[in-house]
Amino acid sequence: MESQKQLTIGLFGFGVVGEGLYKILQQTPSLKATIKKVCIKDKSKKRNAPDSLFTTDKDEILNDPEINVVVEVISESEPAFQIVKTALKNGKEVVSASKKMLAEHLPELLQMQQETGLSLLYEASACASIPVIRNLEEYYDNDLLYSIRAIVNGSTNFILTKMFEEKLDYKEALLLAQQLGFAEADPKLDVEGYDAVNKWTLLVNHAYGIVSHPDKILFTGIQSIQGSDATVAREKNYDIKLVAQAKKLQNGKVAAFVLPQFVKLNEPLSFVKNEYNGVVIESGFADKQFFYGKGAGSFPTASAVLSDISALRYNYRYEYKKLYYHKPHELTNEFFVKVYVSFDDLAVIPKDKFEWIEEWHSDAERKYLIGVISFTALKESNWWRENNTSLILTPDPIIEDVEIRKLKKKSLELAGL
Ligand code: HSE
To answer: Which residues share a beta bridge with 338?
Structure first.
């Protein structure tokens, strides 16, 4: 058997994840992986590691022939891309946790991996401690993956849990998420759904071979959810979660989005609290499977980085099987969704855009309706993001084109029309 490679690591970033990795590696000497240098921005900061380890010159790592692995865990996306690009060009394998960078530059990164034949691993970039990328890549390497629904952002899940179960106010909950090292440097990325859609861009690639860009996937975060929405959820025995969803439709194309969703209390995702993430995969024959684990934080994220480093010892690389060995799927907007919308003023709701409306509540704490609308209509408009309006998908929100006529007829009959 080929002996395991000695890994000499150049690390970029010594924040929550970088420092976590440094500590974990000290506790796993059997890995034959050592950090030779750490590149940081500000050398004057006090750090819990010897001064000689640190540099502010990226070339000390990128041009060091002894360093065969670059681990990049910085938060700025463009510098991260330059580091990863140069590292691959210079013949180094790369482990990254920069989901924004990876999602925004996916096509170039795919090409670079093909050209260099080197590994670029990024398990930590989605769902932190849950090995979801490698599972999608290796275990679900066929065409039988029907759907994935997931909570992929720890901070928003933490904030929702603290607000609606422990009655903290939004600011307190966010501050706590920041103090615990869950939130992004700019927490707007978490709260407004950017982080989740970046992760979802990567996961739909490994699930369905779709090479997309975060801009192409409809998303929002938890910024407009209000206490009254949580009251309605409770009345209906639902939780509110920020859910990333992808589903293969009968036309063979894939519906994908990241939106707040009502989740039934007996569903696995409703069990996911605080900074935990969860992934429910539905596939042919196996039915549903549920993956659960910490989705943010120093050690949980570093543990995924460690696992990638370990995989490099036996030259593991993503094969992007769905993209290169199967016919890759395409995204579609040709479907309908059932939504709950709460609002202050009925005048801002384009009622005629709805296929039908099932519930109207003008006497509730805050007015709301539940209705069915085409996904395209939602994607092409902004009314649901404005004027203090909140939009939450109902459980099992997707209605396929082929079903819409039958369901519309039924709903009109029920309404006596
Ligand atoms: N800010 C991210 C989250 C960190 O809360 O999920 C882990 O990717």
So the answer is: 372
Question: Both tokens of residue 316?
Answer: 């593991």
Mean of pLDDT over the chain: 95
Q: Which two tokens stand for residue 90?
A: 């210079």
Enumerate the β-bridge partners of residue 35. 9
| Structure confidence at residue 2 (pLDDT) | 52
Q: Ligand 1 test: best mutation among 182, 222, 275, most atoms within 8 Å of CB? A: 182
Q: What is the pLDDT of residue 409?
A: 85
pLDDT tens, position by position, 187-209: 999 999 999 999 999 999 999 99
pLDDT at 43: 87
The answer, yes or no, to whether residue 295 has pLDDT greater than 90, is yes
Please determine, for residue 417, whether its predicted confidence score (pLDDT) is greater than 80: no
Provide the 3-class DSSP secondary structure of residue 351: helix
Ligand 1 atom closest to the CA of 126, numbered from 1: 8
Q: Select from 93, 125, 157 the last residue of a domain.
A: 125
Same domain, 107 and 254: no
Rounded CA separation 101/298 (Å): 19
Distance 394 CA to ligand 1 centre (A): 25
| 182 Cβ inside 6 Å of ligand 1 | yes
Angle between the N-to-C axes of helices 227-235 and 154-165, in degrees from 0 to 180, rounded to the nearest 10: 80
**Residues 341 and 371 reside in one and the same domain:** yes
Band of residue 410 on the pLDDT scale cut at 50, 70, 90: confident
Active-site residue flag, 199 = yes
**Which residue among 37, 99, 199, 338 is the active-site one?**
199
**Ligand 1 and 137: CB distance under 6 A:** no
| C-alpha torsion sign, points 127, 129, 130, 134 | positive
Closest residue by CA, ligand 1 atom 4: 296
Residue 272: predicted pLDDT:
98
Instruction: Please indicate, yes or no, if residue 308 is contained in any of the structural domains.
Output: no
